[in-house]
């Protein structure tokens, strides 16, 4: 998805929707395999990927959302992405969005989580486990680190779990 967006933005080349969806599914599968060594649980249902564990499905009546952010401080363009899977590992939803003027990678990672939760709440999901590959974002969400600049975004994310 990001590649299609980049091709359009930077090269003016359009990729048809079927190829975009196919590539998004391939990327999600690659991401899943790359992140297979994960699962450090926090106080919130947010965890960070660790390299030696496989992706674990959520329990009955829950879904799992893996999020990621990409930050380019030089070009001042970033993006977020997420994939939602059920207990069988079947992809239910995928989302991506460009972000402009992000100040840091951790801001983009938190925004990826926030935007995924906004969309999933609109789709009436309320039992969501969120996994991120950003230790900094997970530490902030679990109150292990304090960065006041992110307080409003963190509050938005915490509100989804209440």
UniProtKB/TrEMBL annotation:
It comes from Camelina sativa. Coiled coil: none annotated. The gene is LOC109127264. PANTHER family: BNAC02G40300D PROTEIN (PTHR47074), POLYNUCLEOTIDYL TRANSFERASE, RIBONUCLEASE H-LIKE SUPERFAMILY PROTEIN (PTHR47074:SF48). Pfam families: RVT_3. Transmembrane segments: none annotated. This is Uncharacterized protein LOC109127264. InterPro entries: RNase_H-like_dom_plant (IPR044730), RNase_H-like_EbsB-rel (IPR052929), RNaseH-like_sf (IPR012337), RNaseH_domain (IPR002156), RNaseH_sf (IPR036397). Residues 66-159 form the RNase H type-1 domain.
């Amino acid at each position: 998805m990001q590649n299609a967006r980049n091709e359009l933005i930077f090269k003016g080349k359009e990729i048809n929707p079927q190829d975009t969806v196919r590539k998004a599914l391939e990327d999600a599968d690659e991401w899943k395999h790359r992140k297979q060594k994960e699962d450090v649980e926090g106080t919130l249902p947010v965890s960070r990927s660790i390299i030696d564990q496989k992706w674990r499905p959520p329990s009955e009546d829950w879904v799992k959302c893996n999020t990621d952010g990409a930050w380019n401080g030089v070009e001042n363009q970033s993006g977020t992405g997420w994939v939602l899977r059920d207990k069988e590992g079947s992809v239910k939803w995928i989302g991506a969005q460009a972000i402009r003027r992000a100040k840091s990678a951790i801001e983009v990672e938190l925004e990826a989580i926030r935007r995924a939760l906004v969309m999933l709440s609109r789709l009436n999901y309320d039992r969501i486990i969120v996994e991120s590959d950003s230790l900094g974002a997970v530490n902030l969400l679990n109150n292990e680190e304090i960065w006041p600049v992110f307080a409003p975004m963190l509050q938005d994310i915490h509100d989804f779990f209440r």
